[in-house]
Design goal:
22 strands, 22 helices, 574 residues, alpha/beta, Rossmann fold
Length: 574
C-alpha cells in the first residue's frame, strides 16, 4: 500500500489538524499499512522496530474509534515500563489534542494509586498502563474493562521478556471477547505467536523491517578495548566528538551506578536510569535529560524504553548486548527525525561472537574505530575553549572581569603573559591528567594487533590467544594500573601519580553513594570533579583519590562536615 499523505486515510478533521500541528505530513511505512486495517476494526499483528512511528500507528485508529460522549474506559494500552507508558499517553494526548472531552490516563507503579483511581472515576476513555498496575486496579475493582473496544499490546516481546505473560493473559481474559486486539512487537518469538493464536481473531499481519537498519543515518563503529580502559575510552570519545547529548547503555544496574559516579567525578553532567530508582527519581532524571540539564544518560535496556529525545547525537554500547535486537533498539535512540547519528560499541574479546551476530542481524557494516590519542583529545578541548572565548569577546555585554585584566596590566604584565597564564590555569591541569592516561594509546596498538590477527577467531575480529598474550603483557606495565594482591586473590586498581588517597569515616552502612561524596567535596571545597579520581566505598569507610595539590584543602574544609546527615572525619589513608 502506497500512501502520500494522511488525508488519504480518511481521518477525522480533529486528528488531521493535530498531525499538521505536530508537523507530520506523510505516514511512515508501519502507519501506512496498519492504520487502514485498524480503522476497519480488524485485529492486527504488527512487527516494527523502535523509531518507526508505531505508536501513532495504533494511537490514530484507537482515537478515531473512541466515543468521547461516553465516560468509561473504551481502550487499554499495555506497555512494559513506566517511561514508555508515559510516552505513549503523551502521544495520545498530542494526536487527540483537538478532540473535545477526550480523557487519557497513564497508570503505573511507583505513583499514588489514589490519584489514578480519581482519574478513572472522572471518566478516562483511554488507559495506558503497565501490566502490574493494571492488574492491581482490576483486582480492586477500580478499573472496569467490560465495555472495552480496543486493547493494544505495545512492545509485547519486551513485556514477555520481563515476565508479564501471566498478567497479560489475565487482562485479556477480563476484556470482552468481541474487542479489537492490536499487538505490536519488534520480534516474533514463539511466545508471541501463542498469544496471537489464543487471543486474536484472524489478525492482519503487518511487517515493517528496514532492509538496512538505520545504516544510512547512523555511523556504526566498534572499539576493541579491555574492561579496565572502558571509562577512559568513553571520556576520550565524548571529548573528541564534542558530545552534547548522548545515551550510554550498560547491561546491569550496578554498572550504571558505577559509570555515573565515574563520569560525575570527572566533571560530566551525567545521570543514571534503571529499574531500582523510584518513579519520582526517574521522572526527574528524564526531565533533566530532555531539558539539556543532563547531557549524558546512562541506562539499562529496560529502563531506556520510553526515551524519546530527537537530538541524541551518539549512543554508546558500553556493554555489548547479548541479543542483537537490543542493539537495534539501542542505536534507534539516535539518527531520528531525519538527522544523522553515531553508535559506538566497546568490544572485549569475549564479545567478538556477539558483535558478528549483531552485524549479520542489522545488515549494516560496523567498522573498527581508532582510539583517540591524548593529543587529539587536548587539541579538541583547546579548540572548543578558544571558540568559547571568541564568543564571549564578541558579546556586547560588559565583562565583569575587565578590571582584573586592567589591574594586571597596571602591574606591568603584557596581554600575552596574562593570556598564556590563564590558558595554562584553565587547560594545564586537565592536560596533565590526560598525560597520566597515555598508556591507553599503547593499549590501542596492542589490542588492535591482537584483534586483527587470524588465529581461531579469524577475520577482522581477531584472535583470542593473541589478545590474551599481547594484552596482558602490555597492560601490566601501565603506570596507572598496578596489580594488588589481597588474601591470595589478585585485583586491579588505578593508582595515578599525583593523587593522594583520603579516607572518610562513612561508607555503605551510612547509605552514601559515590555521587553523594563527589557532590559534597566539590560543593564544599571548590575542587573540580576532574580533580577527584577513583572512589572506593567500603562498609564503614570510603577511600577517595584527590589531586595531591588539593588534598590539604579537602582535609581542612571537609573535616566534620555532614554528608547525608553523617558527620565526617578525614585523614590520609595508610
Amino acid at each position: 500500500m502506497s500512501l502520500v499523505t494522511f488525508e488519504q486515510l480518511s481521518l477525522s478533521s480533529e486528528v488531521q489538524q493535530a498531525l499538521q500541528t505536530m508537523g507530520f505530513s506523510a505516514p511512515s511505512p508501519i502507519q501506512a499499512q496498519a492504520i487502514p486495517f485498524a480503522l476497519e476494526g480488524r485485529d492486527l499483528l504488527g512487527q516494527a522496530q523502535t523509531g518507526t512511528g508505531k505508536t501513532a500507528a495504533f494511537a490514530i485508529p484507537t482515537l478515531e474509534n473512541i466515543d468521547t460522549t461516553l465516560p468509561y474506559v473504551q481502550a487499554l494500552v499495555l506497555c512494559p515500563t513506566r517511561e514508555l507508558a508515559l510516552q505513549v499517553s503523551e502521544e495520545f494526548g498530542k494526536i487527540g489534542q483537538y478532540i473535545p472531552r477526550l480523557s487519557v490516563l497513564a497508570v503505573y507503579g511507583g505513583e499514588s494509586i489514589d490519584r489514578q483511581i480519581r482519574g478513572i472515576k472522572r471518566g478516562a476513555q483511554i488507559i495506558v498502563g503497565t501490566p502490574g498496575r493494571v492488574i492491581d486496579h482490576l483486582k480492586r475493582g477500580t478499573l472496569q474493562i467490560d465495555q472495552l473496544r480496543t486493547i493494544v499490546l505495545d512492545e509485547a516481546d519486551e513485556m514477555l521478556n520481563m515476565g508479564f505473560v501471566d498478567e497479560i493473559e489475565s487482562i485479556l481474559r477480563f476484556a470482552p471477547e468481541d474487542r479489537q486486539t492490536l499487538l505490536f512487537s519488534a520480534t516474533m518469538p514463539e511466545a508471541i505467536m501463542r498469544l496471537t493464536k489464543k487471543y486474536q481473531r484472524d489478525p492482519e499481519i503487518v511487517k515493517v523491517i528496514p532492509q538496512n537498519l538505520t545504516a544510512n543515518r547512523i555511523e556504526q563503529t566498534y572499539f576493541p578495548v579491555r574492561e579496565a580502559y572502558k571509562a577512559e575510552l568513553l571520556i576520550r570519545l565524548i571529548e573528541v566528538n564534542d558530545v552534547k547529548i548522548g545515551v550510554i547503555f550498560c547491561n546491569t544496574k550496578q554498572r550504571v551506578d558505577e559509570l555515573v559516579a565515574t563520569l560525575q567525578a570527572r566533571g560530566y553532567m551525567a545521570e543514571g536510569l534503571h529499574g531500582d530508582l523510584t518513579q519520582m527519581t526517574r521522572t526527574v532524571v528524564m526531565n533533566k535529560f530532555r531539558q539539556g540539564i543532563v547531557n549524558l544518560l546512562v541506562a539499562t535496556d529496560v529502563a531506556a524504553r520510553g526515551i524519546d529525545v530527537d537530538d541524541v547525537e551518539v549512543v554508546f554500547n558500553y556493554d555489548i548486548p547479548h541479543d542483537p535486537e537490543y542493539y537495534v533498539h539501542r542505536i534507534g535512540r539516535t539518527g531520528r527525525a531525519g538527522k544523522s547519528g553515531k553508535a559506538f560499541s566497546f568490544v572485549e574479546r569475549y564479545d567478538v561472537r556477539n558483535l558478528k551476530n549483531i552485524e549479520r542481524y542489522a545488515r549494516a557494516p560496523i567498522v573498527k574505530g581508532e582510539i583517540p590519542t591524548v593529543a587529539e583529545v587536548q587539541k579538541r578541548r583547546q579548540a572548543r575553549f578558544l571558540l568559547q572565548c571568541k564568543e564571549e569577546m564578541l558579546k556586547a555585554t560588559q565583562n565583569d572581569y575587565q578590571h582584573l585584566v586592567d589591574e594586571m596590566l597596571g602591574e606591568g604584565f603584557t596581554l600575552e603573559q596574562i593570556t598564556a597564564a590563564l590558558l595554562k590555569l584553565q587547560l594545564g591541569e586537565q592536560n596533565q591528567r590526560d598525560a597520566l592516561q597515555e598508556a591507553l594509546a599503547q593499549q590501542n596498538t596492542q589490542t588492535r594487533d591482537s584483534y586483527d590477527k587470524g588465529g581461531r577467531q579469524g577475520g577482522k575480529y581477531g584472535n583470542r590467544r593473541d589478545e590474551r598474550r599481547g594484552g596482558e603483557r602490555g597492560g601490566s606495565r601501565d603506570r596507572f594500573q598496578q596489580r594488588e594482591r589481597s588474601g591470595g586473590s589478585t585485583r586491579t586498581r588505578f593508582s595515578e601519580e599525583g593523587m593522594t588517597k583520603i579516607q572518610l569515616s562513612i561508607g555503605k552502612e551510612h547509605n552514601v553513594s559515590k555521587a553523594d561524596i563527589v557532590g559534597a567535596i566539590t560543593g564544599e571545597t571548590g575542587v573540580r570533579g576532574h580533580d577527584i579520581g577513583l572512589i572506593r566505598v567500603y562498609d564503614e569507610y570510603t577511600h577517595v583519590d584527590v589531586q595531591s595539590s588539593h588534598a590539604q584543602k579537602v582535609l581542612q574544609k571537609m573535616q566534620h562536615r555532614r554528608i547525608k546527615g553523617n558527620a565526617v572525619t578525614l585523614e590520609i589513608a595508610q
